[in-house]
Amino acid sequence: MADYKDVWVYVEHKEGAFTPMSYELFGIGQKLAADLGGNLCALVIAENTDELAKEAGYYGASKVYAVDGAPFKTFRPDAYAKAATTVMDKYKPDVVLYRATSQGADLSSACAATLETGIASDAIGLEIDAAKAVKVTRAAFGGSYLVGVVNTKAKPQLMTVRPKVFPMSERDTGKQAEVAKEAVAVAEGDLRTTILQFMKSEVTVNLVEADIIVSGGRGTGKPEGFNVLRELANTLGGALGASRAAVDSGWIPQEHQVGQTGKTVKPKIYIACGISGAIQHLAGMRTSDYIVAINKDSEAPIFKIASYGIVGDYNQVVPKLIDEFKKRLSR
Amino acid sequence: MKIVVCIKQVPDTEAEVKWDLQKGTLKREDMDAITNPFDEFALEEALLTKEKYDAEIVALSLGPQKATDVLRNALALAVDEVHHVSDEAFAGSDTLATSYALAKSIEKVGDVDLVLCGKQTTDGNTGVVASEIATRLGYSQLTFVGKIVEIDAANKKIKVERNIEGGTELVEAKLPAVVSVLKGINEPRLPNLMGIRKAAKVQIPVWDAAEIGAAKEKIGAEGAAVKVIELTTPPPRSGGEMLSGDVDEVSSLLVEKLLGLKVIK
To answer: What interface predicted TM-score (ipTM) does this complex get?
Structure first.
């Protein structure tokens, strides 16, 4: 397996549109490549890869493997996996990183099964061990345990990485990557999926990428309880979350749910209102940088992991917070 | 139409976790167990699909002896057939080995149109097995599904809504397909007493590695690529501070502290 080299990062995009987050793994990718003595490379698959490839160079890739073509306009697992595995088969990367998003999960798992290699999902820690393998740290059992896993059996080593865990690399428009255009033929008739339509969410619930989340639980008591939380979230430019208890009570749609059967989030600030802190909820938010807990019950377990705790009624505290923030932020 | 639903028994999240550190595996037999919460939605979706389109449902569960409990529960809900995929040789599987064993089992069921899985399990939390099964079998890979809009079994087509970042994607795919479902796609029903009584009497058939034609080097610890080498508990969060005072005081104190973090712009 000695001929496997370099660290690749898959560049996620939506029909060619990208954000800085598309390149968020270039920071950790650079570090792993340096520790392994290899290069940081990017894998870009799109209808037209030019802009995406140029940007990859800015963020520090020395080489970009680019697959262009009409079948790659919109992400589809079958088309993209064909392209990715063809190029991976040819150039044999040692490590391939994907974001732990719907696209990253879909593509990495299809690549793993095609290439008969292992995959480690939702990494929150990545380091090179003595045997030059990537040791991946992941949360297990609602985050009450951390497990370290390695793939020493098959290459490439594939892993998806939890968004926002690792610092980004600097964007430097003076840098340029060598671009290798790879032709991969995909016949539309061989593909199994057709995207008919994309309906943008009316309420923008991008919990996973939010820096600030205001979340409500059983203690909000009713659907209207979320109005004031939504206002606080809007004031802070954050997103609105909820516990399972609130979702199961029908007070707020499931897409807002944080926790074991909802989303796993890692904002810089997580404000939990009327959330007691069941293990299933903590599973989804315990790695937030700062946790604020507002709860009437001073014994609520959420206070044990809170950076700041207020024993009180969110109905009284949150409106005050909104006023104070508006005043201080001149909004 | 023939539907396979994959169900896994997982340790109860509230239960004490027991590990075999030597092998890097769970001591599943020693822990309280439940049906993986996401799989309940997959099972209910199979039942709803059967009611709407007429279908035969085969439930599969890969796991140790104790995992028959989850299949008995499926039987109580009027699933047509169950198979317990179980063999000592499966112990120590990672997702690569698990998806192989399940794909071989689905092939053995034969003539399958639709495979339903939960989005992920609450123990491994990997969320990749459904996709790996799809890839191995050459079926359509449909993940994060919040709604099955339509199935046209005669023309081998399925239309689903996928709830992904930023919105909902309407996708049409060829059958057979593997569909992994999200929480909220339905309201799982509970079995009734008669169903439970009937299911209790059924002898659950076991498929071992030989029965599904699995190659020895591709299953269990031997077939696994990813291995657990370390187990730790996360460092406790420290520096927690309780703010006290009246509502005005605690509110302005909290605002002060949060603005000091330089996160809010």
So the answer is: 0.91
